[in-house]
Structure formats: C-alpha cells, structure tokens
Design brief:
The protein is an alpha/beta fold and 281 residues long. The chain contains seven helices and six strands, in the order H-E-H-E-H-E-H-E-H-E-E-H-H. It has helices at residues 3-16, 38-48, 65-68, 94-100, 116-125, 160-169, 218-229, and strands at residues 30-35, 56-61, 74-79, 101-110, 129-133, 140-144. Strands 2-1-3-4-6-5 form a six-stranded mixed β-sheet, with helices on both faces. The radius of gyration is 43 Å and the shape is elongated.
Length: 281
C-alpha cells in the first residue's frame, strides 16, 4: 500500500467519524497515533501535516505509551497505520487505550486482513461499544467508548410533586389504620417447645436421616425408635394357609403373621430370643 493510498483513506476516515473541523476553527479534536517504530512517526508526520489546522495530532511509541497519558485525553486513538507497523501485536494494551480516551472516544485499529474477528472480540471485552469492521478499508476495526467515564457520578433531581406522591403512598394515617398484634399471628402449636429427639440430625447430611455409612449413632437410634413404635403381631390364633410358615421368611407370604420371626417346629409356640435385637459385638 503506497503513501498516497494511506493518506486518502486516513483523511476520509477522520472526516467520516467527525474528527476534523473546518479550517481555522480553534476547537480541534485530539488524535493519538500509536506506532511500533520511530521511523513510522516521520512518515505519518509528513502525511498529517497537510491538515494540521483541522486536528491536533500526537504520536507515541508502543514502548513509551505511558508518556502519552501525561496531559489531556484523546478523542481518538489510531493504531497500525504505518508500513510494517506492529503496534497491534500486543492486544493486552487495548485496556490501556480505554484510559487514554475521553468519554465517547474512538479507537481505530488497522490489523492484518483475516484477523479482524479476534480484534473485535478483544475490543468488546475491554468495554468498547458499536465495534465493527470498516467495509471501505480492509482490516480496519472501529469501536467507541461509552459516553461516560468509569467512576463518574451525577445527582438525580426528583420532581417535587412526584416525591410527595411517593411519600403519601407509604404514609399511614393513625386514625384510620388498623394494626395487628404480633401475638394474634401465633397459634397454640407455634408456642410448643419442640422435642429434642426430633431435632437430632446426622453429622454428615445435616438432616434427620442417617447417611449410608452413618457413624454418629443416628442410624441405630432411628432403628431402635422404629422397632419401639412397631406393634408386635399377635400370633396366638394365627393359622397358616400354606402350611410352610414354620420354615422361615423364605417360605412365608407377604401377609404372613410370622413374617420376621425365626423358624420353628410345627405346633411350637413362637418366641423371640432375648438377644435377637442386640448387636453381635
């Protein structure tokens, strides 16, 4: 790309983005060219000298970018406009450009054709808005800063009439309002002290249900309470319909009155051993 083509694209780019003013106007916009080599500065100074009365131009090397932050902020920052310029090689510097731009400032970055999507994504992640690829200039990506600076604040002025309406909507008239006693909201069951046994929880699950490998004793306690609440079936007058009840649970049906009891001899009175529900250890 020759110098003439760069010059024509650059002038049109600045005009299209309202960065130039009428010749002789004192209120000129501030532009910063970030370049990778000092030789590029000389070439760009020559190109921009013809419209120095329409815009304020400053140049900064990528290595000395901190020096550019001294003084006023910039309305636009331009990257990659020099021949063989590597000012865009480090995308991590893009957040730095956000601190150098005024509210609503523009970042114009000229990158290698085919890598525009990567640059667009990076600019969006850094807070730029309306980021898009310029269709008239190959490899050109443009994005705008928000119209506010980070950390700025403004006072909210409320309409006095609206403020009074809001206050009156939440104001209580003592003469007409009815209040409810807190005690009236409670019922008799709410005042009962809960049983401490019902508050026991597993140390692992934090619930009133033992975990699979419970070691805190809750599983044994729940099983004891379950057996205590389970009524013992009366088998004194029970009769077997299949004649196999005495053989054990493997031969008993689901409704067998002997279910859960040990095997016994026919005609023998069934009794549970005293140590049947005790641990073996």
């Amino acid at each position: 790309m020759d110098d003439h083509y760069i010059k024509v694209d650059l002038l049109k780019l600045l005009d299209d983005n309202h960065l130039t003013v009428t010749q002789g106007t004192s209120d000129r916009k501030n532009l910063l060219f970030v370049v990778g080599k000092s030789s590029t500065v000389e070439k760009l100074e020559e190109l921009t000298s013809c419209y120095a009365d329409r815009v304020n131009v400053k140049f900064a090397l990528v290595d000395n970018l901190n020096l550019a932050s001294e003084g006023s902020l910039y309305n636009a920052i331009l990257l990659g406009f020099g021949v063989d310029d590597n000012s865009l090689s480090d995308l991590s510097l893009i957040p730095k450009y956000t601190s150098l731009l005024v509210a609503g400032g523009i970042l114009m970055a000229k990158t290698i054709i085919g890598t525009e999507d990567t640059l667009v994504k990076r600019m969006k992640l850094c807070g730029f808005l309306n980021v898009a690829v310029n269709k008239s200039i190959p490899g050109m990506v443009i994005g705008n800063m928000p119209t506010y600076k980070v950390g700025t604040s403004d006072k909210i002025a409320l309409n006095p009439e609206t403020k009074e309406n809001v206050i009156s909507a939440w104001k209580l008239d003592d003469n007409n309002s009815e209040t409810i006693s807190e005690d009236d909201l409670l019922e008799a069951d709410d005042l009962k002290k809960p049983d401490t046994s019902s508050l026991r929880v597993c140390a692992t699950t934090k619930k009133a249900k033992a975990c699979k490998d419970c070691t805190c004793g809750l599983a044994e306690e729940l099983e004891t309470n379950r057996l205590k609440d389970t009524p013992v079936p009366d088998t004194s007058n029970a009769k077997s319909s299949c004649g196999s009840c005495y053989l054990g649970d493997a031969f008993r049906c689901a409704s067998c009155p002997y279910l859960g009891m040990p095997a016994f001899r026919p005609g023998e009175k069934v009794q549970l051993a005293g140590n049947l529900l005790q641990d073996d250890l």
